[in-house]
Amino acid sequence: MALLVLLVCIALAAGQTQQLTSENFNELVSSGSWMLKFYAPWCTHCQKMAGDWQTLADNLKAADIAVEVAEVDCTTSKDVCQAFEVKGYPSLIFVNGDVRIPYRGARTAGEMEHFVRAAIAPPLTVVSADELAKLRVGEQAFLLLVVDDVESQQDWQSTVRTAARHLVIALPCHKTTAAIAGTAPGLYIFKGAGEVSIYGGEADSKDIVAWARKEKLPALSELTRMSAGELSENPDVTLLAILLVEGPIGSTVQKDIVKQVALSPRESWKYRFLWMNGAAAEWRAFVEGRWQLSARDLPRFLVFNMRTGEYYPHSGELSAAAISAFLDAVAAGAVPAQGGRSIPAQIAGYLTWIWDVALGSASSAWAEYPQVMQLSAASIVFFIVITVRNALRQPAPKDRKTD
């Protein structure tokens, strides 16, 4: 035990990442804040981010930020990775006690450090009238607890503070007084553009977290890596109604049209409305490979089923009436689905992969169709092995006798 602690202290002093195993994981991670990387030695993405991961450890050490950076080899510590429900490599998770916050951003030292700093920030900050006014005119959603004064309603403050520890990355949490923001106690989520959700439940941290995660998105929000991960883990969300635009901002007119549709939903609709930069590098392989669209096809609108992989492209004008009619048709099953994970769709994906490779886009094909790539590579190797084996087994031709 003393030797283990000594080795950990030496690693921390040098700003090095720690290697955690099944034997020491629970003992070390049970206290303090940790930024963890779950990886496999053969994972190329894990190998590529090794330098940034070390830089993150060095930067946090230099800034005297009390967060330990460590990694777990999932090929040797499978029980730890199973406990954290690791489904892909690398998986990056901030841990502090019972708080687990997955990181889904860019794997650069700067972005990861920004995430860590946000994760350890005070979960519930006091805001003044001027600060609240600035927050309300911004586009960033935030949670607001209103109390009589900063020392009152301690039961609500304690409960919301506990909830905020689980929401700190996805939703900034603040508190203010009734003199500034109305009746106390009150709990609100401001989503920008006048959209507000009001909490009507009891002072229960789990209920507040569930409510906040469901209500924090505005009628139309940007699809990012972080929100995509959260949506994929939400069993209540299946159909995404997505406006694809070209560029990081896109057309305000197009967004306003789709937002108008989102704010006037039909009872039969089960859509989550989003917009995304279809030309962004992080989405290009998905947009081009899965939806067969390129930057010159944008803007476009489509519905995507996260569970089946099927999608429904809209090809008409981008007006509120046309989009509403299209969504009605999708909900009624009148629009044929494309893509998906069926055998025909897999074959279509394979053919698309061949086309991508023929055009010199092998890297894009690997990103979009990793399983097909692996299967194809295995098939080629198998064919070569069988061909060579048969060639070696074939008897050498005998000299023909002549009279």
What is this entry, summarized?
This protein has 403 residues and is α/β, with parallel strands linked by helices. It has helices at 2-13, 25-29, 44-48, 50-62, 78-83, 109-119, 129-137, 154-167, 178-181, 205-215, 225-232, 252-262, 281-290, 320-331, 343-358, 362-368, 370-393; strands at residues 18-20, 33-39, 67-73, 91-96, 99-103, 125-126, 142-147, 173-177, 186-192, 195-198, 221-222, 239-245, 271-277, 300-305, 310-314, 338-339. Strand 14 (300-305) and strand 15 form a beta hairpin.
The SS-based structural class is alpha/beta
Give the N-terminus to C-terminus distance in angstroms. 89 Å
Number of helices: 17
Outline: flat
Largest sheet: 6 strands, mixed
Q: Strand order of the main beta sheet, please?
A: 11-13-12-14-15-16
Alpha-carbon Rg, integer: 26 Å
Number of distinct beta strands: 16
Query: What is the helical fraction, as a range of percent?
Result: 40-55%
> Average pLDDT value?
82
Sequence stretches where pLDDT stays below 50 over 5 or more residues: 1-14, 353-369, 396-403
Strand content: 15-25%
Describe this structure in words.
The strands form three sheets. The protein has a six-stranded mixed beta sheet. A five-stranded mixed beta sheet has the order 1-3-2-4-5. A five-stranded mixed beta sheet has the order 6-8-7-9-10, with helices on both faces. It has helices spanning 2-13, 25-29, 44-48, 50-62, 78-83, 109-119, 129-137, 154-167, 178-181, 205-215, 225-232, 252-262, 281-290, 320-331, 343-358, 362-368, 370-393; strands spanning 18-20, 33-39, 67-73, 91-96, 99-103, 125-126, 142-147, 173-177, 186-192, 195-198, 221-222, 239-245, 271-277, 300-305, 310-314, 338-339. Helix 8 (154-167) links the parallel strand 7 and strand 8. The radius of gyration is 26 Å and the shape is flat. Helix content is 44%, strand content 20%. With 403 residues, it is of the alpha/beta class. The N and C termini lie far apart (89 Å). It is built from 17 helices and 16 strands.
